[in-house]
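Progress note, sequence design subtask.
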């Protein structure tokens, strides 16, 4: 009699353990699901898990880094903004062990959060309420003279290049070519000086920026031929400069 009771208890415990394990697997933390490409069911970027936009080696370095574990835990779009305004440089990995920069860690966190387009545009144009800036927004939604925190703007621009479609990448990033503020870039064993317009130009023309392989962006001329983009007039174009000089409102 005791043997049958013991067998029943063992069977009950086994069934309960299996049910609990299945329930825990079905309710894994979002971060774990995000990094597991097989179980990911969240929003996609061009049909793929956003985590796969970074190479696996880079992902592993990010998730193993102290900054990711200590400073990126539990961040949302608002608190990530607080972290981003503390950035002091852009860059990918550095040092002999190729540690990820805080800039790269926050970019990966943005991919995990997947904020709406309006949120990203707000990050591009974020202005300190106490600065008193009252610039008007152009049709593109990007204001060249706004954005008190340049590294926050650089982070948002990097995210735009990773996730937006080709037309929106050009429309969103090209106005930033008029932002000439200095940026500090961290490379393997030192820091170098660059500028916001140069960084944006790299995003538009290069296939690898900040230690990350970018998806192939079609040439602007190709999108113009398809009538998806209007021809861009450079601020350095002589005709444009003459028209600005003749415009009384420009002076």
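Output:
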């Amino acid at each position: 009699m005791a043997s049958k009771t013991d067998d029943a208890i063992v069977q009950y415990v086994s069934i309960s353990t299996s049910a609990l394990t299945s329930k825990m697997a079905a309710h894994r933390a979002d971060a774990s699901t995000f990094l597991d490409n097989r179980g990911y069911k969240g929003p996609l970027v061009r049909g793929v898990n956003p985590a796969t936009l970074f190479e696996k080696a880079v992902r592993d370095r990010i998730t193993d880094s102290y900054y990711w574990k200590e400073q990126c835990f539990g961040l949302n779009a608002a608190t990530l903004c607080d972290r981003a305004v503390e950035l002091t440089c852009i860059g990918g990995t550095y040092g002999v062990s190729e540690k990820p920069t805080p800039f790269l860690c926050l970019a990966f966190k943005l991919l995990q959060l997947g904020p709406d387009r309006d949120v990203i545009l707000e990050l591009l144009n974020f202005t300190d309420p106490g600065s008193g800036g009252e610039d008007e927004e152009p049709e593109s939604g990007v204001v060249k003279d706004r954005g008190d925190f340049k590294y926050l703007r650089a982070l948002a621009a990097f995210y735009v290049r990773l996730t937006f479609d080709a037309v929106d990448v050009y429309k969103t990033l090209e106005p930033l070519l008029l932002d000439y503020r200095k940026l500090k870039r961290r490379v393997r064993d030192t820091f170098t000086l660059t500028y916001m317009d140069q960084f944006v130009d790299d995003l538009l023309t290069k296939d690898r920026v900040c230690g990350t392989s970018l998806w192939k962006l079609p040439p602007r001329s190709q999108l113009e031929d398809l009538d998806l983009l209007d021809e861009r007039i450079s601020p350095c174009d002589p005709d444009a400069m003459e028209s600005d000089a003749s415009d009384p409102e420009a002076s």
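The mean pLDDT is 79. Work on this subtask will continue into the next period as scheduled.
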